[in-house]
Amino acid sequence: MPDDKLRIFTLNLNNQRPDPRGDQLVRDAVIELQPDLISFQEVDWNGEDPHQATAILEGLDYQSIHQFDLQRPDRPYGTLIASRWPISRSDLVKLPSTERGKAFPRAIQAAEIEAPEPIGSLLFINPKPHYEPHMELEREMQAVALADYIERNANPDGFPPIVAGDLDATPEASSIRFLTGLQSLHGRSTHFVDAWKAADNEGPGYTWACENALVKQVAERIVREKGHRRRLDYILVGAPLLYSGYARVETCRVVLDQPRDGVWASGHFGVFAELALYAH
Question: How much is the pTM?
Answer without folding.
Answer: 0.95
